[in-house]
């Protein structure tokens, strides 16, 4: 593991030169809340398949939407997609 400081890994909110690592990015409560939200979206996608019939395609559309949100939110909105190259 290297200790390189990239421009993208510096904390711009303060004047200190701190490196954002996975250990200091989120506290435990925030991580648990984010996990519960994303897992609920995933379980909602699976549950929507119980209403799927050949006559009604909308449960599959809801399933795909919830499934995509369950993976898209943590990777883009919650900010973990850009940290793969830091460590």
TrEMBL record:
Keywords: Membrane, Transmembrane, Transmembrane helix. Residues 1-21 are annotated as: Disordered. The keyword Membrane applies. It comes from the Bacteria. The chain crosses the membrane at residues 28-52, 58-78. Residues 1-12 have a biased composition (Polar residues). This is Fatty acid desaturase. It comes from Pseudarthrobacter niigatensis.
